[in-house]
């Protein structure tokens, strides 16, 4: 005896009801497909029955008979395929096999589509940095200079500059061999001496580089200043300021600018000028600036060890600031000295670069009496009534 067939939620089309679908229940037993609804009852013989997938996304299983055209029964309940009739009737068994195969195929296709979509998204995500880089490269030099100019004006409001001609001349003399190897076709670089006791330096898009008096006085050798300067120049040539702003706009904007034109970036850039004065470069950008800065020092024949030894002073400064303010908040007061990546890690990377370069001596001598330069700086600072020691008070990062 076969177990009583379970009725399934089903629908039917029948000529008596035109094109309207009728909701009811179906069962599959005794060699018949039976459909029952209040207004409609009929049966289809299992012998010669066609069973196929249909409806939106092949969600439904249809039962039809060639001798009863215009009539069909359908259900979305796939457990109907477990009915004994499918095992007992060879033609039905084959139809079930075909349906299952189709389901597996469509699941496979769906899985492949999802996988491909995920791969595309991951690819876009991974390509974000290089898209940002390419967007930044498309930004006209004039816009970048305007951006730097806007930030510079804002910075100037809260800071004093040392504008003494002789100081300026000596600073330019110090920087000359380095600037000679840094590409200046996009914009010229200008150095600005800021009266500020903190060990800091920073650069703005478009080529303005700020050196704090505290940094110049804390340096033991001119190579230390040149090391920091090379790092800052690299931030400019690698467009880290613009890249930081574009990257912050989010993936959608980046992709839009990447595939379209960059004219929409102009307004965004200038609006973000204040951001340049508070931004922290990403870990990757700091690494990139260290490495590119090293290349500039190498090309200029200058001893790159100055950057490494200056980092020792940075570390001492970090320690003393940490001691002054528990919790590390004070470290935000350090720009160039930013804590990520860790200073020791940056030093180790530079040591590796030096080892790889194979050059250990015969570096170019710096054409400046550095001690006399520092003395002149001290005297100008005291004329301004400024403290000349390099102990950095806590202050907002420029
Ligand atoms: Zn930096």
Class from helix and strand fractions: alpha+beta
Q: Main β-sheet, in a few words?
A: 7 strands, antiparallel
The best one-word shape is rod-shaped
Rg of Cα set: 37 Å
- Proportion of residues in β-strands: 5-15%
What are the segments in which pLDDT stays under 50 over at least 5 consecutive residues?
328-334, 390-398
Bound molecules: zinc ion
Q: Which bin fits the share of residues in helices?
A: 40-55%
Q: What's the order of the H and E elements?
A: EEEEEEEHHHHEHEEEHHHHHHHHHH
How many domains, in number, for the residues? Answer: 2
Number of strands: 11
User: How far is the first residue's CA from the last residue's CA?
Assistant: 89 Å
Kindly report the spatial arrangement of strands forming the biggest sheet: 4-3-2-1-7-6-5
Query: Mean pLDDT score, rounded?
Result: 86
Count of alpha and pi helical runs: 15
Describe the structure in your own words.
The protein has 398 residues and is of the alpha+beta class. The protein folds into two domains: 102 residues, PH-domain like, CATH 2.30.29; 257 residues, no CATH class. It is built from 15 helices and eleven strands. It has a seven-stranded antiparallel sheet, covered by helices on one side. The protein has a four-stranded mixed sheet with strand order 8-9-11-10, sandwiched between helices. Helix 3 crosses helix 9, helix 7 packs across helix 12 and helix 13 runs antiparallel to helix 14. The structure holds zinc ion (ZN). The site of zinc ion has 6 residues, from helix 7 and helix 12.
């Amino acid at each position: 005896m076969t177990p009583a067939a379970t009725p399934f939620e089903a629908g039917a089309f029948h000529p008596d009801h035109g094109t309207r679908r009728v909701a009811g229940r179906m069962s599959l037993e005794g060699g018949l497909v039976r459909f029952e609804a209040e207004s409609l009852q009929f049966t289809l013989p299992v012998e010669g029955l066609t069973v196929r997938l249909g409806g939106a996304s092949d969600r439904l299983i249809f039962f039809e008979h060639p001798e009863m055209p215009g009539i069909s029964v359908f259900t979305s309940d796939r457990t109907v395929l477990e009915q004994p009739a499918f095992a007992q009737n060879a033609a039905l068994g084959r139809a079930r096999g075909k349906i299952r195969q189709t389901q597996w195929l469509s699941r496979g296709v769906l899985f492949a589509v999802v996988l491909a979509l995920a791969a595309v998204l991951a690819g876009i995500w991974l390509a974000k940095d290089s898209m940002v880089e390419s967007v930044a490269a498309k930004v006209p030099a004039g816009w970048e200079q305007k951006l730097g100019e806007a930030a510079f004006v804002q910075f100037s409001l809260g800071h004093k500059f040392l504008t003494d001609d002789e100081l300026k001349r000596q600073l330019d003399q110090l920087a000359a061999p380095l600037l000679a190897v840094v590409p200046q076709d996009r914009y010229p670089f200008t150095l600005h001496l800021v009266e500020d006791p903190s060990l800091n330096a920073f650069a703005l898009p478009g080529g303005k580089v700020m050196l704090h008096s505290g940094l110049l006085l804390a340096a033991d050798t001119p190579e230390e200043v040149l090391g920091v300067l090379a790092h800052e120049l690299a931030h400019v040539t690698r467009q880290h300021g613009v890249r930081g702003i574009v990257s912050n706009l989010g993936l959608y904007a980046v992709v839009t600018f990447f595939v379209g034109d960059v004219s929409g970036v102009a307004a965004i850039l200038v609006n973000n000028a204040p951001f340049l004065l508070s931004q922290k470069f990403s870990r990757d950008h700091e690494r990139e600036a260290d490495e590119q800065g090293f290349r500039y020092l190498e090309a200029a024949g200058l001893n790159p060890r100055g950057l490494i030894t200056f980092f020792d002073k940075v570390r001492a400064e970090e320690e003393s600031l940490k001691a002054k303010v528990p919790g590390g908040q004070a470290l935000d007061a350090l720009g160039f000295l930013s804590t990520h990546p860790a200073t020791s890690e940056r030093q180790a990377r530079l040591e590796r670069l030096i080892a790889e370069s194979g050059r250990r001596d015969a570096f170019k001598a710096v054409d400046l009496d550095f001690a006399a330069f520092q003395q002149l700086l001290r005297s100008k600072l005291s004329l301004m009534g400024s403290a000349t020691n390099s102990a950095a008070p806590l202050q907002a990062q420029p």
